[in-house]
Amino acid sequence: MPRAEYLGFEQRFLKLPRRRVALQLPKSGEVGIAPTARGRRCAVAICVLIFSSLQLSSAPSQSPEPSPESNSITAKEPITPVPEAATTDPLKIKLGERLFGDTRLSHDNSRSCSSCHDLGTNGAGRNSHDVGLDGSELPLNTLTIFNAALNFRFGWEGKFRTLESHTLASLESPRIMGASTSEIVDKLEADPGMRRQFAAAYGRGPDAANVSDAIASFERTLVTPGSRFDHWLAGDAAALSADELNGYRLFKSLGCSSCHQGVNIGGNLFERHGIFHPLASPKPEILRVPSLRNVATTPPYFHDGSAPTLDDAVRKMGFAQLNSTLTDQQVNAIVAYLKTLTGNYRGTPVGASP
Amino acid sequence: MRMRSIAIIVLFFLLLLTWLLLSGLNLNSVRYDRELRALEDFTRFERGMNREVLTARAGLSRNYDALARLTDAYDDAVNRLLEAAGPGSEESAAIEALVARARRQQDLVEQFKSRNALLQNSFVYFRIFSARLAASDQKPVVAAASSLAAAVLHLTLDSSQAAAGEVQDRLEQLARLQSSPSDADSIQAAVAHGGILRNLLPATDALLRELITAANIREQDAIRSLIVKRQLAARASARQNRLLLYATSVMLLAALVYFGLQLRARANDLQRRAAFEHVIAGISMRFINAQPQNIDAEIERGLADMARCIGSDRAYFVLWGAAPRLHVWCRAGMSFSPGWPQGAPSLAAQFSTAVDGIIHVPRVDRMPPGENKDACIALGLGGWACVTHVDQDGTGVALGFDAIGRPCCVTARGELSLLRMALDTIVYAVGRHSIEKERIRLEARLQQARRMETVGTFTSGIAHNFNNILGGILGHTEMVEEHLSSDARPRRNLDAIRRGAERARDLVDQILTFGRRREGRREPICIKALVTEAKSLLAASLPSHVGIAVSETSEMTVVSAEPAQLQQVILNICNNAAQAMDEPGVIEIQIEVRETGASRVGQMRIGPGRFVVVSISDPGRGMDEATLARIFEPFFTTRPDGNGLGLATARDIVREHDGVVEVQSAPGTGTRFDIWLPSIPSNESISVQHSPGLAGRGVGETVLVLEADRGRLLRHEEILAALGYEPVGFTELREAALADAVQARFDAALLCHQPGASAALDFATALHDIAPKMPIILATSSARDLDAPMLAASGISEVVHHPPTSSELAGALSRCLTVSAAPLLQS
Fold first, then answer.
1. Which of B 355-414 lie inside 8 A of A, CB atoms?
2. In B324-365, alpha helices (H)
3. Is a pLDDT exceeding 80 seen at residue B600?
4. Distance (Å) of CA A247 to CA A319, B311, B604
5. B605 and B631 housed in the same domain
6. What is the pTM of this model?
7. Per the CB < 8 Å rule, is A68 touching B30?
8. Which residue among B72, B117, B196 sits closest to A271, beta carbon to beta carbon?
9. Any CB–CB contact under 8 A between B199 and chain A?
């Protein structure tokens, strides 16, 4: 066999231990490349590089998602499990995390993103309305930052298509962070450590684009996989009790899942509220359907924070949106189901720590 | 300047090539590819979106994640398309329309999602409540519910206005029914959800229709065809540019080849030139080293070398003018036509195209027809290169190279200038050669002159001392004579001694005259007058068997000269002639005016111009070559009593007058002397001809002569008479004193001084007192006891030897009378 001869030749002249070669033979598909043939590999790499640079038309752009066309018809359930966080660019994520907790991002250095989005608990606060920079209450309840990246639009009203634009808008909003990008950049620029970190992640100093990108990169990692329901979806029939499973069935049959579906159980369409009966404060009329992930940990509920408990919220939703007065039993079952939606952030169930 | 233009050209080509390359690469095609891909994605995602919407509407899908993702991808495709197209492109208007449609589609999708959620719920609830009502025990409720269900079912299939109206009717019918409280809730819920269905079904279907209608492919096709068209155009232009690039490269390559060939040709030329220069340098070096006698051989060898170097068949060097030369070379087996190359200069002169004396005929067969061409063909020339030059003397030179029956071998202009250089080299060699010959000749002359000078100085010194000794001998002889009676025997011996001493003194005198530098005043004189005078002087002194005949010319014969000296020349030569005549005969003096263009007469160098020639010929013995060569040497004489100074003096005088003396003689045929003197324009003359004593010729002036010896007195009177003066002789001082009364009668006085006696001086003093203006000439045999103050005090203006010779006397008298006459003329 010529290859064996070839290897024998190599071995004779390169004084390789025969065993090592023998071990590699079955393992690697590219047996032709001997372990020390680094130079040849380099040459091949250079050739490939040249060919690829000669290719005038670039390769068709691949969308990062598997495919937007992955068909949902075959999916048995309207809900899909939360994927693990992608950590493709750890430097950026690390920087984003640091910025997330950095008060220099607010005009008066009084608050950071995490002031309202408490990652230690539920990714939001416990207030029905957080307080703005001017001391007055913000008009809408603060949404949790957990799994926010899975929404198709951002904010209660879904005005932002990207996390970056939403981040920038929050930073520049006079009532939320009240800063300007140039101000933030100047402050970060003054910090050598920060500058180094930016240089390491982006190859340049901080600017508006990479500040928002770093924060968004971090936010994309704030997903909470591993809920009991996701386990059940993955095939673990024992993950849910009969009661909870009953609750899920009710959730579907009562029509909740018409809006609350998808990976984030909501968050992928707009809907009017108060279809049959008024729900909460009438403005704004159309909301992006909120996600029900970790819903048990994020009271109070609704855009105005008017429902203090989950029970209350389920009942109100059934009446206003479905024209259906739910029985206590039904409510309990649904609530029991909703409680199985609490996932883990960095191995810890959301809202577990005080 | 040149560098700058080269830089500009290089920059231009660089820019051109870069531009062609960039155009040829078709960089825009990437953009078109991106656009096309974005457009494709747009279509794909729009279809996917629509399919997803229909799926959701049909209730097959209960999850909007896929739809949301598709919508995002759709939006992204639109943005990519917008970005790839860029602003202001041809298709941007169409793309803008597409973008607007995409926004609308997305809005519709969002609306659809919201409505569909409600719709699906309402379907579920309507189904639940109508099922409940169908199970009611009240017939009308069941019937109404059934008909409502049927109407809603119809509406799901046909969401037209009519179907919606029917559902509305049924809903109202159901709502109007009086029913039991148990059914009331169900009825209310069914009516509520039925109302939603009635409103939402047509609206949602309208949305769907709008979505699907809007998603037609025509707009994309239009854009696609636009992009494809542009892409094809870009490709075509890129191909064209690549072709242009290729053409430019080929052009540059051609230029490169052309320049390379040019370079090679230049290099060849240079090489040839260098070889030719080398040959010329070699020839030149050989010329420098050549002995004068080898110069002709060297020139011919040089011609051969040059002809071989440039590949010529025949070569020649022609010099015409005073000393013509001809050197030729021709290839073995070839020969010169008759009259060639002697005819080369005249043929060259016919060429009007010659620049700077260079004639270059590359090909005779391509010459314009005419005499020249015919001449060249007649000579068998195929090509001809010739360089000529004529200097101001009329001496011309030509260097020619012939090619026989083939084109001229000299091709480059540079080589023609080298031909000139070669010509110059040869001309210089010839010139140097003749200069060398001249130098040798001059060297010989100079040596002779030095010898003469040494002899002259030597003899002058001897002569001076001799003169003093002779003075002593003469003085003592005279003193002894006084003590002897006239018939005493020793008297004869004394006479012999005195005569011998006198002859010796004459000889010494002549030696001194020869050695003296003559720097007399020159003036224009007429030769004819001078010769006439000389004839009269000679008539008195020549032997009787010799006659003189003068043949004059009618032309003016004026020269610038010192008359006395020139007279001496004629007298000396005539005396020489007379002495050469043993038989009676006539000396012929011929005066001519000759123009000469040549620079020499016989062996003598003399400038071209107009000359007065005095030819003196005698029919005497003549001379042989050896004698002829030496006759002008001082002290050379063939006569026992000759002193050998006459002709030497004559030649020196003539030479000092910028003239030459030429002699032609042969034994037995006589001798002819030609005296060449430069002529001057005659209008400057000529009062001098008649001025007294110009050439020692008097005009009847009375001269007092005092001489103690009566015999000599007579002789003196004869000479003076011959010179044209009126002599009045005295032998005694007393008699002279008697003449005091007639002092005014005399124009000059000649007093013969006796050495040791003061009588003559005393008389001179007395005479000077009486007539201070009268010039007094003292003749003395010895100037030993005389000194200048004494002479000046006695009013003596000239001193001559005693006995005075005719020419001496003539010169002295003429000088004295000119000086004394000048104030008179002025007053």
1. none
2. 344-350
3. no
4. 17, 120, 155
5. yes
6. 0.54
7. no
8. B117
9. no
DSSP letter, residue B187: H
Residues of A in contact with B70 (CB under 8 A): 68-69
Q: What is the CATH number of the domain that holds A105?
A: 1.10.760.10
Assess whether A215 and A241 both reside in one domain.
no
Same domain, B685 and B710: no
Q: Which one of B368, B393, B411 terminates a domain?
A: B411
Q: Do B343 and B365 belong together in one domain?
A: yes
B528 and B668 in a single domain? The answer is: yes
Whether complex ipTM tops 0.85 = no
**Does A207 share its domain with A279?**
no
Q: Do A253 and B66 touch (CB under 8 A)?
A: no
Residue A322 in contact with partner chain B when CB distance is under 8 A: yes
Residue B87 distance to chain A (closest CA, Å): 21
Q: Tell me how many domains chain B contains.
A: 3
Task: Count interface pairs A-B at CB distance under 8 A.
Answer: 105
- In this complex, do A275 and B45 lie within 8 Å of one another by their Cβ atoms? no
| Domain edge (last residue) among A220, A248, A282 | A220
In a domain, B99, yes or no: no
Tell me if B588 is assigned to some domain. Answer: yes
Smallest CA–CA distance, residue B256 to chain A, in Å, is 30
- Residue position matching structure tokens 């307080």: A131
CA distance B94 to B435: 102
**DSSP letters for B254-308:** HHHHHHHHHHHHHHHHHHHHHHHHHHHHHHHHHHHH--GGGHHHHHHHHHHHHHH
A202 within a domain of the structure (yes/no)? yes
Domain coverage including residue A330: 228-347
Domain boundary, last residue among A188, A220, A252: A220
> Is there a domain that residue A214 lies in?
yes
> For the residues A171-199, what does the mean pLDDT come to?
92
Q: Do B55 and A73 touch (CB under 8 A)?
A: yes
Q: How confident is the model at residue A224 (pLDDT cuts 50, 70, 90)?
A: very high
Question: In what helix (H) or strand (E) does residue A201 lie, and over which residues does it extend?
Answer: helix A192-202
Residue A195 lies in a domain: yes
Please tell me the distance in Å from B220's CA to the nearest CA on chain A: 19
Together in a domain, B675 and B546 = yes
Looking at the complex, does the CB of residue B72 fall below 8 Å from at least one CB of chain A?
A: yes
Contact B114 A75 (CB under 8 A): no
Q: What is the CATH number of the domain that holds B380?
A: 3.30.450.40
Nearest CB to A255; choose among B67, B73, B124: B124
User: Could you read off the pLDDT of B787-807 as tens digits, one per residue?
Assistant: 767 777 777 777 777 777 777
User: In chain A, which among 173-232 make CB contacts under 8 A with chain B?
Assistant: none
- Whether B50 contacts chain A with CB within 8 A: no
Looking at the domain assignment, is residue B239 inside a domain?
A: no
Q: Residue A295 has what pLDDT? A: 93
Do A96 and A158 lie in a common domain? yes
Please check whether residue B40 touches A, CB under 8 A.
Answer: no
* Residue numbers of the domain that contains B686: 522-690
Residue with tokens 């009966």: A277
The amino acid at B582: D
Residues 174-193, chain B, touching A (beta carbon < 8 A): 189, 192-193
DSSP B357: T
Contacts 24+ apart (CB under 8 A), A214-217: A214/A92, A214/A93, A214/A95, A214/A96, A214/A99, A215/A96, A215/A99, A215/A100, A215/A113, A215/A163, A215/A164, A215/A167, A216/A96, A216/A149, A216/A162, A216/A163, A216/A164, A216/A167, A217/A89, A217/A92, A217/A93, A217/A95, A217/A96
A70: closest CA of chain B, how far (Å) = 7
Check pLDDT > 50 for residue A240: yes
* CB-based contact B66 A286, cutoff 8 Å: no
Domain annotation covers residue A83: no
A53 touches chain B (CB under 8 A): no
Q: Does A258 touch chain B (CB under 8 A)?
A: yes
Looking at the fold, whether A212 and A243 belong to one and the same domain comes out as no
For B75-88, what is each residue's pLDDT tens digit? 999 998 888 887 77
